[in-house]
Design brief:
By secondary structure, the chain is of the alpha/beta class. It has one domain: Isochorismatase-like (Rossmann fold). It is 29% helix and 17% strand. It has a 6-stranded parallel beta sheet with strand order 3-2-1-4-5-6. Helix 3 links the parallel strand 4 and strand 5. The longest helix is centred in the C-terminal third of the chain and has 14 residues. The protein starts with a strand and ends with a helix. The model has no long low-confidence stretch (mean pLDDT 96).
Amino acid sequence: MIVVDIQNDFCPGGALPVKGGDRIIPPLNKVITEFSRSNLPVFFTRDWHPPDHTSFKARGGPWPPHCVQGTWGAELRPDLNIPPESEVVSKGQKPGFEAYSGFQGTNLEERLKELVVDEVFVCGLATDYCVKQTTLDALKSGFKVDVLEDCTMGVNLKPDDSRRALNEVSSKGARLLDSARVAELLTSEA
């Protein structure tokens, strides 16, 4: 399971909030619990930007400063279920390099392959940016990919950006699932 960027700055009250982004946490926590009970790996990605990151408006990027290393905004949400055996993957750490995907500039692909993972379940924030790119990169890396629709939420700069992102990843081979279905699948396989 890859949980994308459930950080304070991407939730209400943060520097770059996804409207309603905190609403996906309860169903997400249920799935995380099921993965943990089934001894399946859970990875959490996080934006982990230096103060002078290229994505910030002051450097010509599109976004306000967000998820700056060591700040409250960069922390994973306190109401997120983070199993002790899970791993955190930091992305976007270099000042001049943007990374929407959890695979860009990280060891995520290597870790998944070390654990002999062939299928990943992707969820988190934001559907139309980091979830989409993480999903596309997972597909390019040869993983079977499932996106948990009710455990994602988008920025939606244009009204249907999230739906378009989900349609795009689905057209490239990702399966779209509801988190309740995943819990059923894991329970039936246990």
